[in-house]
Amino acid sequence: MPSAKILSEKQAYVADLKAKFESAVSGCVVAYGGIKSTPASRSSMIGGINVENDTKLRKELREAGVDYMVVKNTMLRLAVKGTALEGLAENFKGDTAVAFAHEEDPMAAARILCKYQDGDKSKKFVVKAGFMEGKVMDAAETNAIAKLPNREGMLSMFAGALTSTLSGLAVAMQAYADKQEEPAA
């Protein structure tokens, strides 16, 4: 039986995790395969990601405003217990990391982690599941979400579509006006 101090620290940690799950717009659960330290001559890893790649991943996530952490599965299970995200608990097995995306770019966690998963030669880094606005998503849904452009990309696509529609309308109106000006034969 843990001491009262340790128990209260763990309860506070679980409460903090629960708050992260509730405040996040979206997020991902990842099997990261463990971090391995390797000599510089062995950059391709067998049995997990190396420290250098993990550092790059964490930097990219941090710059995108994503909270990323490796957490004990028991703590994660306790954090989602009794919430809309309780379905994530079945994915808390093995080496598990979670990423929480916020308002700035809700797709950032999925986009970055799925890109990293696709580039991982060892196939030990796998996106297991995700969540968005209180809904649990499986790996396939999370990978599909990751392929969507970010907010700025969507806005530029919308602006491009709107511009082409308006320019087409302007051409049609000009052709109609030119036809009206022609003398009848």
Q: Care to give the gist of this entry?
A:
The chain is of the alpha+beta class and 185 residues long.
Structure description:
With 185 residues, the protein is α+β, with helices and mostly antiparallel strands. Helix content is 50%, strand content 17%. The chain contains 6 helices and 7 strands, in the order αβββαβαβαββαα. It has a 5-stranded antiparallel sheet. The protein has a two-stranded parallel sheet with strand order 2-3. Helix 1 crosses helix 3 (73-80). The longest helix has 31 residues, at 151-181. The chain is elongated and about 100 Å long. The relative contact order is 0.15. Residues 43-47 have low confidence and may be disordered.
Write the layout of secondary structure elements.
Blueprint: H1 4-23, E1 26-31, E2 35-36, E3 49-50, H2 51-63, E4 67-70, H3 73-80, E5 96-101, H4 108-119, E6 126-132, E7 135-138, H5 139-146, H6 151-181
Parallel strand pairs: 2-3
Antiparallel strand pairs: 1-5, 1-6, 4-5, 6-7
Largest sheet properties = 5 strands, antiparallel
Portion of residues within helices: 40-55%
Distance between the termini: 101 Å
Order of helices and strands: HEEEHEHEHEEHH
Q: Provide a count of the helices.
A: 6
Helix-and-strand structural type? alpha+beta
User: Care to count the β-strands?
Assistant: 7
Radius of gyration: 24 Å
| Physical arrangement of strands within the biggest beta sheet | 4-5-1-6-7
Strand content: 15-25%
Q: How much is the average pLDDT? A: 83
Shape annotation: elongated
Low-confidence stretches: 43-47
